[in-house]
Each structure stands twice: as C-alpha cells, then as structure tokens.
Fold this protein.
Amino acid sequence: QVQLVESGGGLVQAGGSLRLSCAASGNIFRFNAMGWYRQAPGKQRELVARIFSGGSTDYADSVRGRFTISRDNAKNTVNLQMNSLKPEDTAVYYCYADTVFRFWGQGTQVTVSS
C-alpha cells in the first residue's frame, strides 16, 4: 500500500509563495509519474503539474511559469514551488502517484487572499 502525505499548505497573500511537499512511503522510483491536482469549491479536480519517472514535467496552462514541480529521490518526496500566487489558485491540492493504480494523498488547503 502506498501512502502519500502532503504538507506546506496555508494562507498567503496574492503575489506570495508557498511550497508544497508530498512524502511517499517507499522509493518513488517505482512510480511512473507523480504530481498534483487541485480542486476549488464547486469545480472539478484539475491537473496542476506532474513529473514523470524520466524527469520530464508537464504543467497546466494556468500555472506554467509560476509553479515548478521537482523530485527529491533521496527523501522520496515531490515538491511544488508556487510563486506569484493568485486568488484563483485557492483550492485543496492533492498529491498523486501512479503505478498500475493511482494513489492519492489526503489533500492540503491553499488559500490566496486578494
């Protein structure tokens, strides 16, 4: 069983930064991809960023150039550096990891005030 634990959410003013971390149980090399989704109230869950086992990355258009996803293999974590935050980034952010199955973290709240 895979466990994913997110941390780093919180309240920040527009223009500020936050760094989310997702700690996985066991070696992250076994995952085909890891990344982050977010879900705002009344909206569907959307992909924010992902990083593949080979190191390539992919971003939603709305965050490209502001968010950076990275992987720390030694710590079995995936991080999401979020800069120039906007009120529309407010959501619950969920970490995920793919093998044959998809595993999810419990989510962490990010609130950006205007």
Observations:
- DSSP finds no helices and eleven strands in the chain.
- The CA atoms of residues 9 and 110 lie 5 Å apart.
